[in-house]
Amino acid sequence: MPLTKGKQTFDITKNVANVLDFGAIGDGVTDDTVAIQAALDASNNVFFPDGDYLITSGVTKVSDDVSVDFGNATIINGGVGYLFTFGTSADTPQNNGLKVRGGNFIQSVPSTTSNQNYILIGAVKDFSISSMRLNNVSNGGITVYAGAEDGVINDIEIPSKSAYSTIRGIWLNGATASDYASQLMDLDSITRNATAVPIYAVKNVKISNCTLTYGGYGIYCMNTRDVTIDNNHIDMSGVGSTRCIALNNYSPGAIVCNNRLISDRSCTGILVTQYSHDVVITGNVFSGSFGGNRAIYVAYLASVLITGNRFSDETTQHIEINTGGFASVLNNEFFPSAYIAFFRVILLSALDATSLSQGSTAGVIANSGLLFKNNTVSNRSVIVRADMSLASTVNENQPCVDTLEVSNNTVLNFQGTGGGEYLVEINTGSSGNVQDYYYKNNSLHPYTGSLRNRVVLVGTDYRELMSNTDFGLFSVVNEAGAGAITSTKLVGSSYSCVATRSANNIIVSPRTQFGTSGASVPPIIGIVDELGTAASFRIVRSSANYTITALDSTGALIPSSTTAIKFSLLIGPSAT
Question: Is residue 293 within 8 Å of 315, Cβ to Cβ?
């Protein structure tokens, strides 16, 4: 038999406890703690009629099949660490079935500096929290502890924060840890500061349709498994050094999809760290500015598939990967609104500066890596920077960047107007690390004649597995009367070609990479006259150069010192 009160409908056949029947007043002044606890003790089905309920000490409910409906009531935190605790502290589920919905939660002192929160769930399987507004959050407006599994957190609005030092709106806290920055992880034993990663966690929780706009840490996962974060709006503007979404302290199997993430300062969009492997980040939109940091940060043995996202943020680097992190970045759009020199899409490095300054506590870490494929980029002067110059032998850590593929990408509005513009730069420094790179079939628009569509190499320890194209095309022009000779590249990002005159011949020197002496020399595979001057050409290789002689229809030499000659020169794959 249904009972309707205001906008709430209840089934009174399920022994529903109305908190007013247990002495609650709901005037916002009277302390209703004892009455609310009495209602929870009396029934597994509790509802709050419209009103303002002041609670001055935490209330607890530990049972199976619990249902609490706050409806349109306002719940006032009168100085409590957590207003409501459902379940207990354990590594595995102890109770099954929990539904909590509704309510407008506020602090009695909104600017409190104390750590005062609202909902805590521990060791409950099959739970849901929905349709709730949390104002003035502190360090965990909604917190879920280890042992909780198969949960849904849906339609939560968090518009404001308190003055507490650390703010987390929704916190899945499977295990606590110190800050990740100084924690290098041993690849063989998978430990963190010599402490084994725990097997217990918060598992299989979906957080969806939430709006978090208070400026702080948004959705924070520490030691979770198979969490889904879907279709949320998270705006952490107005505060620095925070994260919209964090997958920290070993949180593998997460899916972060279809979210809108915004910042206007140094907030990180999505953090993935500490061996959080098999993570998928897809369908998200990044906008605003993530300051001097990054929209996505992958580190400390984490591995991530980043696909189908749109990056519209004005950020120094959209994605940063270091300290053993690996990312497959596929089919994304990087479309910031303005061209900014030296801003890059990817920063890939062996270690981050923080790790070097703090030292390391583990012996070995894995090498960082990147697959960057089928992406579209606009308004960026740097696409991928792979930097091994920070690699160190501190405490026997000898990491490097050893996997790098950049292929089949399209780059638009590549200015080509000044220094610091390149599609890929590899900096090995002097650390002795070896870099293998694969760079092929990338398209640059508009084409520039400054040889920037190539791999720029700094240092000596690297090995090319594949260059960008299988050929290079140049137009070579020899002016009449011993005038200037020019060589203009038409196609072939990784090639250069220098043309000079020697007596009645033209000397061309094709090069890959920098075009420096000793670089690999690709073969000439075709030459076509463009002015109708020559009937044929004779090509003779000498050391690293080619001597080209133009011949008329009788086979006689055409003197390059007096005759204008123009030809297209096709050169093949690099060969040493």
Answer: yes
Q: How far is CA 374 from the centre of its chain?
A: 17
Q: Are 224 and 200 in contact (CB under 8 A)?
A: no
- Find the domain containing 518 and state its range: 472-571
Q: Which residue has 């206007």 as its token pair?
A: 264
Neighbours of 503 (CB within 10 A): 11
Percentage of the chain lying above the pLDDT 70 cut: 78
Give the other-Cβ count within 10 Å of 569's Cβ. 26
How far is it, in rounded angstroms, from Cα 321 to Cα 349?
6
Q: Regarding predicted confidence, which is higher, 367 or 103?
A: 103
| 188 in any annotated domain | no
Q: Specify the DSSP element, H or E, that contains 42.
A: helix 33-42
Per the structure, the count of domains in the chain is: 1
- For 335-374, write each residue's pLDDT tens digit: 998 887 778 899 988 775 455 444 444 444 567 899 999 9
- Contact criterion met (CB below 8 Å) for 200 and 175: yes
- Count of other CB atoms within 10 angstroms of residue 465: 11
Q: Evaluate the CA torsion angle 440, 441, 443, 448 in order and state its sign.
A: positive
CA distance 570 to 111: 71
Write out the two tokens for 558.
């055409």
| Residue 374 belongs to some domain of the structure | no
| 3-state SS class at 573 | coil
Whether residue 289 is contained in a domain is answered as no
Helix (H) / strand (E) containing 340 = strand 340-349
Three-class HEC string of 156-213: EEECCECCCCCCEEEEEECCCCCCHHHCCEECCCCEECCEECCCCCEEEEEEECCEEC
- What are the Cα distances from residue 297, in Å, to 230, 270, 557? 19, 6, 62
Q: Is 544 exposed, middle or buried (0-12, 13-18, 19+ CB in 10 A)?
A: middle
Q: How many residues does the chain have?
A: 576
Q: What is the pTM of this model?
A: 0.80
Instruction: Count other Cβ atoms within 10 Å, centred on residue 575.
Output: 10
Secondary structure of residue 358 in the 3-state scheme: helix
Please state, in angstroms and rounded to a whole number, the distance separating the CA atoms of residues 429 and 389: 4
Q: Look at residue 181 and tell me if it is in a domain.
A: no
